[in-house]
Batch of 2 targets.
Target 1
Amino acid sequence: MNYKTDTNFRKEKLIKLLNIVNIYENEIIQALYDDFKKPAFEAVLTETSYVISELKDTIKNLKKWAKPKKVFPSILNFPSTDYIYKEPYGKVLIIAPWNYPFQLALCPLISAVSAGNQVVLKPSELTPKTSKIIAKIIDAVFDKSHVEVIEGGIEVAQKLLAQRWDYIFFTGSVAVGKIVAKAAAENLTPVTLELGGKNPCIIDKTANLKLAAKRIVWGKFINAGQTCIAPDYILIQKDVKSLFISYLKEEITKAYGSNPSLSPDYARIINTKNWQRLVNMMEHEKVIFGGQTVIENYYIAPTLIEDSSLDSLVMCEEIFGPILPILTYEIDAEIDAILSRFEKPLALYVFTKNHTFSKNIIQKYSFGGGCINDTLVHFSNKRLPFGGVGHSGIGAYHGSLSFDLFSHKKSIVKKANWLDLQIRYAPYKNKLTTIKKILKWL
Ligand code: NAD
């Protein structure tokens, strides 16, 4: 098959994919709106333009990334020339989630294709309109024996997982991530697991509170809070809490108006199950802003809550919706007491002007990635690896790292024949002292 060895073939396919994504961009935006009222602006910013940029970058660099890389040889093998060859794994399964259903399906697909793999993609059943258009686009570009989209729900995913793959790339919840890891272990299949977690957003009193509120409102309520790296809860120094809350309220109103249900810029919750889960979370909480819900169109207003107990529902699982608990701390030890209750999160944000404070937080805690004085934007730099650690995931991708992720790195030593040092060969008699000296010297 030419896609395995021929980088020109792969490049041509990706150029065709780029053209078709451009042609269908409006239909994709409409599908995302139909699925959960994703605003067109957010669809362009976080889905279509992101995929288009990933395609352009991959098309531009594919040949460079695919080239065998010459590395400095070991003196022990003198004379030799040493290389790393990048070889496609073979058959790759990609299972995608619903929250950024176009981008999180297409980006790993683009990378797996660029690295020369055969790909089967299962998009999310919860965004049927987007999944359908993904299938249409992929069908128009690729032969099914090269790249195929298989639509369906849990049963389909499980049937696919029961097959043997050479690589599995999964994005979704921690619970399903464990199912995927178990299935992969049956055949020792390598996996990337892009999962979630409870992402803290720590604010000390030196922070620019007004700007912090603006950036947090954006990062929390984009996609109605259904973002894997959205701030999950705020942990703010007690003295500045009420001022910060007033800024949060101001920023929410500025962004979505006094009745966000009428805002064209505010998405809806994906389905009844998630809507009910979020409503249950708010039930016994002290809502200080928002809190309105409408089951008919899965609306939940941007909501602020305070004084949540650490044992409450809202603090026990990933929120993944537009509810923002605000907790406080007085001394740094309290930050530690709260953060250490949770598994390693996918993201962490710290807002401060105190360099030592942010440095300590970043060094002390393990998390996938994050920002100082902003939210979400680390996702947008292709030179930064994106992924979790511990329960928030295994492996990282984006940019050239994605090409590497879908490639087996094959090490090759090309030995010259003009010299063959005798020392390594048996019999070893009288060679021990010499070899010790050489190895110590190296
Ligand atoms: P999910 O785990 O429910 O579903 C993801 C995919 O797995 C879907 O395609 C679904 O059909 C399939 N699936 C569901 N149950 C399955 C099962 N029992 N066996 C096999 N396959 C199954 O996740 P979701 O609700 O689509 O997405 C939300 C979660 O994903 C959140 O936890 C969020 O943090 C996480 N997420 C992570 C990232 C990231 O990049 N790290 C990105 C987006 C979402």
Target 2
Amino acid sequence: MNGCIFCKIVSGDIPSYKVYETEGTLAILDINPVAKGHVLVIPKGSSSSNIFDISAAEWAAVMETVRIVAIALEKALDADGVNLIMNNREHAGQVIFHPHVHLVPRFKGDGLKHWPPGKYVQGEAVAVKEKIRSVLIG
Ligand code: 5GP
């Protein structure tokens, strides 16, 4: 993980606007916000890249910080909602390979669009569901 920007933010080598901190997590303003108050929650540990290799304990700590900050964001910014987003791996849009969850405050009429909805053809949802369950349950 040497050279990772978020590791340098955690160590204090790169400055950031910290909004909240726990023993294992940091919440900072995103430098290029989708909306004012866009926050990133990151684990302080540097041994993982994304959801695929973060430990259960680190993930639990990240999620608890996400919960606390989401509540605070809505209150502090008088927002009408908050989106949680996590990009995992390059083709999912991940640019920084240190786990992080985006919190984007939302406002009525802000114009931000959700992903376009798709559709399953007849029988496809069952096949997809079975594929996923076979990995999870066997
Ligand atoms: P990703 O696409 O990996 O999920 O998102 C990376 C995020 O990190 C982007 O939203 C980007 O604006 C943010 N970012 C990149 N460099 C810095 C930085 O030096 N400081 C902060 N606070 N955010 C950064």
